[in-house]
Amino acid sequence: MSRDLRSARRSVATAVLAAALLVLSACGYDATPLPEPEASSEPSPAAPASCTTTAADLRSYAPSREGGDAVDRIRKAGVLRVGVSADTLLMGARNPETNRIEGFDIDIAQRIAKELGVSLQVRVINAAERIELLESGAIDIVARNMTINCARWEQIAFSAEYYHAGQKVLLRKDLAKGYRGPQDLAEVKVCAPTGTTSIDNIRKAQPAAVAVTAANHTGCMVKFQQGEVDAITGDDTVLAGLAAQDELYARVPQQEAFTPEPYGIGAKAENVDLVRFVNDVLEEMRRDGSWQVSYDKWLRPYLGAATPPAPAYGR
C-alpha cells in the first residue's frame, strides 16, 4: 500500500471517529451543547463478575405505555436525555459532513423520544460513565451498545434485548475469503484493546494466534492499516464500523461468535415504568419493520442478514 493511500485512509478514520457533542431533537438538532466527558485513550478494565449471567438475566419488564413517575417527568421536561457514543461508527458516531450523531443506536433513541412526544437530547459518554450517569439522574437512558448481564442488573434496569452482538474477528480480505473459524488464526496477528477479555478469548480459542494489543480499537485499526496486524477482534458492531472505514481490505466474514453480547437499553433501576415504555416501543419497531430498516441500513452491509432478537419478559 502506498504511503499516500495509508495517510488518506488514516485521515478518514480520524475524521469519522472524532468525538463530538451535539444535541438532537426528534426532528433535528439544535445548537445547545452538553458537557463533554474527558477523553481516555486507555479502555476501562471490566469489573470482576459477581455472578454468572444466564438466560434468565435477559428477562425484562413486560411492555406497557401506562407510564408512571419517570415517564411523566420526561414528558413534563419535554426532553429525553440519552447517553450515547460518538465514536462507534454505525452505532453512534458523528458524521463529519452533517455534524450529526447517527447510527443504529441513535435510530432507536429517536424512536423512543418520538413515541414519548418529546425532543431527544444526546449526551456523549464513555463506557465507564454509563451506570454512574444513570444512577445520578444526569441521563434518562443509555443507548450505547451496552451488554445486559447479571452484575449490571444489580445496579440498573435493562430493556429487553434489542440486538444480539458477539465477539468476532475482522480479517484482511485475502484471509477472510476462506475463514472457517478460530482454527484459521494460527500464526495470524490479531489485535484487541489492552485490558479487555477479547484478547484472552482469542488465546483460548486459538493458542497459536499471535496476540497484539493497542490502547483501543482505533489503535488496532491503525496497526491493521499499516500492516502490523492481520486481524482485529471485538464486538461485531465495533468491527462493522472498522470495516466501513476500510472497505478495500477489511472484512468481517460470516462466523460463530466467541461470546454472546446481548445489547439492552439501560435505565435507572427504579424507573420500571420507563423500561416498560421502551420495551413497548421496541415491540412496535419489530412489528412495523423499522428495526429491520435501521439494521439493514447501518449493519447489514458489513455483518450480513439478521433479524430482531426475541424479547424475554417476566421480571
From TrEMBL:
CDD domains: PBP2_GluB. Residues 33-52 are annotated as: Disordered. It comes from the Bacteria. Residues 1-28 form the signal peptide. The keyword Transport applies. Pfam families: SBP_bac_3. SMART domains: PBPb. Residues 79-301 form the Solute-binding protein family 3/N-terminal domain. InterPro entries: Bact_solute-bind_prot3, SBP_3_CS, Solute-binding_3/MltF_N. Keywords: Signal, Transport. Belongs to the bacterial solute-binding protein 3 family. This is Glutamate ABC transporter substrate-binding protein.
